[in-house]
Structure formats: C-alpha cells, structure tokens
Specification:
Low-confidence stretches: none
Number of strands: 2
Mean pLDDT: 91
Helix content: 40-55%
Distance between the termini: 28 Å
C-alpha cells in the first residue's frame, strides 16, 4: 500500500541507497492524496500518527491546506503541482530516547562533504565525524540540541534496538498521540493493533510473540514503531 508507514526496518537501504527520507516520503504521500481530493481519513492510523509526529499535519491541518489549494480555482483545475508549496519543508523536533542508536545518513563524498561541513556548526561537524568513525553511538552520548538540529537537517536517523528479553509498558498518557482514522483492511495495521492491545509490562517481547503466535522479528519491529511514535516505553 502506498499509504503505509515509512519502512523504518529498511531505513539504511531507503536512506542511503534510495535517498528517500521520511520527510520526502510523507510529503509525496500527502501530495498524492490532496491531488486526488481524498479525505485525511484514508491514511492508516499508524501512518497518520507518524505524519503528525514528524511534520505536524493532522486532520485539521490537512483540511486547512485543502481549503487553501481549492481557493486557487484556476490553478487547481490545470496544474496540481502547486500543492507542494503548501506542504512542510522541515521536520518538527522529535522525542529522542536516550537508548536509541544514532546513525549518519548518506553524506556526499569528499571533497563535497567539506561544503556541507561549512554550513554546519563545529559541534555538528564533530558529531557527524564521531558517527562516521564509530559503529555504535547512543543518543545519550551526544548533545541533545545538536541531535535535534542534525535530525531536522536529515543528516542522521535512529535505530531502535529491542531484544526478545525486553519488557514494554504503555504510559497512561501515551495514547493521546494516537490518530483515530477509519480502520483499513491493511494486514500490517491489523497485526500492529493486535500486538499493541496485547502488551503487558510483565511479559517479555519473546513471550508476547509466542502467545500471539506472531513471528518474533515482526513483534520486535512493531515495538520499535510504538516506541518511535511515543505509544510505548
């Protein structure tokens, strides 16, 4: 489905090989559904929650954008490409957990990388250099503001490590971030719901997978999505 959540499990391939970042991925998705005059409700719930988290486009913002583009009546009829000027150009600040692994995105080769470095602050350059030369760096090892800045410049991304022996909890206020759209027939969304409602803080991820009879890797991936969206800790 073209409306699916950004494929974070394949982020190294999407970001480094295909050069498709979440901002570009979701902007193109919103462009397509606006161009077709579709309702915001066609977005699957987890996709909608990620769009709100990253670029701040919820149902009300989407309706507002649609009203603005429709007001340009002659443009709306002959050239839909103008919609793109209404879509966000930058990411929002995101909640970054201390235990997430920080990875550098695809950087230009030398000497072009030095042109990029000239546009960054000294701490940002040092952070990228550290990430380039070390395999494993956690978010807690780096300056928080620098992390946000590099993330919004799309120079870093995060991997969320979970193990079969980990426990998960859903904080009482977490589901306020949930976006309730229409339920879709997407099997991925159904599995995501099934796992989410079955989470028990006294049950490990491995035990949860066995109980639900769902592939362990799929359960681990679902948990990383919940943590990324702020639904679970």
């Amino acid at each position: 489905s073209s409306l699916r959540l950004y494929p974070y499990q394949f982020a190294p391939y999407f970001i480094k090989r295909l050069k498709i970042q979440p901002l570009q991925y979701y902007s193109e998705m919103l462009f397509e559904i606006m161009k077709s005059e579709n309702s915001y409700d066609i977005l699957p719930n987890f996709t909608a929650a990620d769009i709100v988290r990253l670029i701040g486009i919820g149902r009300n913002e989407y309706i507002d954008m649609m009203n603005k583009v429709r007001s340009k009546k002659w443009l709306w009829k002959i050239r839909k490409g103008f919609i793109k000027q209404y879509l966000p150009k930058t990411l929002k600040d995101v909640d970054i957990e201390y235990w997430w692994i920080v990875k550098v995105t695809a950087l230009p080769p030398e000497p072009a990388i030095y042109t990029l470095y000239n546009s960054l602050g000294p701490l940002e350059v040092q952070t990228i250099e550290d990430l380039r030369h070390h395999q494993l760096i956690y978010a807690c090892e780096l300056d928080k503001l620098t992390l946000q800045n590099l993330y919004k410049k799309q120079l870093i991304y995060f991997e969320i490590p979970v193990a079969a022996s980990d426990y998960i909890t859903i904080p009482p206020t977490a589901m306020k971030k949930f976006v309730m759209n229409r339920l879709t027939n997407d099997p991925f969304e159904k599995i995501m719901y099934d796992i989410l409602v079955a989470i028990d803080e006294r049950t490990t991820i491995g035990e949860l997978a066995a109980t639900l009879e769902i592939n362990l890797n799929l359960v681990k991936y679902a948990v990383t999505v919940y943590c990324r969206l702020g639904f679970a800790k």
